[in-house]
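User: ok so my PI wants both of these folded by tonight, can you help

Assistant: No problem, let's get them done. Here's the first:
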Amino acid sequence: MKYLLDTHALIWYSENDPKLPQKVKELFYNSNDEFYISIATIWEMSIKIKKGTLIINRNFDEVIDLIFLSGFKFLPISYQHTKELLKLPFYHKDPFDRMLVTQTIYEDMTILSKEDLFDSYGVKRYWIN
């Protein structure tokens, strides 16, 4: 199965935060699954860190290093992803979340997110507290 981590899931994973549910952590030990980080997530984090609206316990480079060390893959934003955005209803206006929705649908992934707003788009979402 292919999973796309929402921004908070990546941050909580990188900081070993107890807000990341144990059932989600257990997914990372299944070698048959693939885990992706959208470039939209990295873009969002860098903007929010610069603005001071996101404070993380690691520096940005350490988070990127952890992505590589964990075997996660980066998911670029493609022309097809931007084209798919045109099909999305405006249930949610955040451009980063909208891109994650589009990528989840287009790439046939499951998003790892606590945000139930993704459900209104009919995406596959996994999160068990």
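One down. Here's the second:
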Amino acid sequence: MVDVSYKANPRNANELSPIRTKFVKGALSTAPVTVDSIGQSEQDAWNQVNLIDPIDTNITVVTGIAHHPTRTMHEGAFYYHQFALCIEGEMVVQNLANGNVYYGKPGDLYYWAPGHHQMLGGPFKAYFVKTPIPSKWILTPNGKQGVPMFELENETRLEGSQPTEVKPVRPWSSGVNRGPRMKFIRGATDATAMTVGDTAGRLDAWKQVELINPTDTDFTAVAGIAEHPTNTEIEWKQRRHQVVLVLDGELVSEDADTGITYKAHKDDVLYWPPGLNLRLGGAFRAYYVQTPITRRWISTADSVRYMDLENIDGEGTFKDSSPDKISKERMTEI
């Protein structure tokens, strides 16, 4: 079991979060802490721990372990995107939009979109990823408490205008699939990854399968399985938030600017922020979540090919202006 030290985190409001990797060894063995309340709601035997905190990701993504030891069901409505991978027990979800009930076992993956309404319960432990940040956690004399980011007390809010009229609801006929607000993948961690072709030299012997697609999340985030079967090294500029849970093998992550290197194995978690110059090596299989979307994947007869949204041929760009001057001294007045 991983020993985690919980303490208050004083932070200068002017402090900039450094661009760096965060590595949590033995992440799935980290012991969750009892939650006493989230905002005004009391929790029934709920335990939780963040592995990747909001301050690690500039309040964009949070990753952690949730543990619910009873068979009680709780109602929930989502205003954020959440991926939940069952790692122990039985994770039961009822979709209140259609009554569908799912019994998630270890290795099964849930995705819930904003607007989804459900009942959740069962004795389970899950590895979760959420974006944007729905809550932050503080320690008080009464225990661990959640501060909901979307339910701040006395927050100012401008009300929108009233509708011009309310028409009768008509059948949707545009041909565009509006899609469900949740997706369930049974046996997600055992999904077969396909060979990636036409990588323009960027990916060597890479295999991949996207479990939660861009269209599932309204082009906000993706989740899938990646395999790198060789020990060759890959080098790239990280332009997205990415959280990786190693399922098998050894993943070697090197910060090209600092030389700081981590060797991650089964149940270890890595977070890579945008702006990181990264070298990646090792033979491994991993479950990943990424935001925002930087690639789309297309299946062909013999492989999977990707559309690189970071490097589009002929994309129009506008050059930035030159500075008026360069000063290495901090300016305190004009």
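The domain at 192-308 is CATH 2.60.120.10 (Jelly Rolls). The chain has a mean pLDDT of 87. Good luck tonight!
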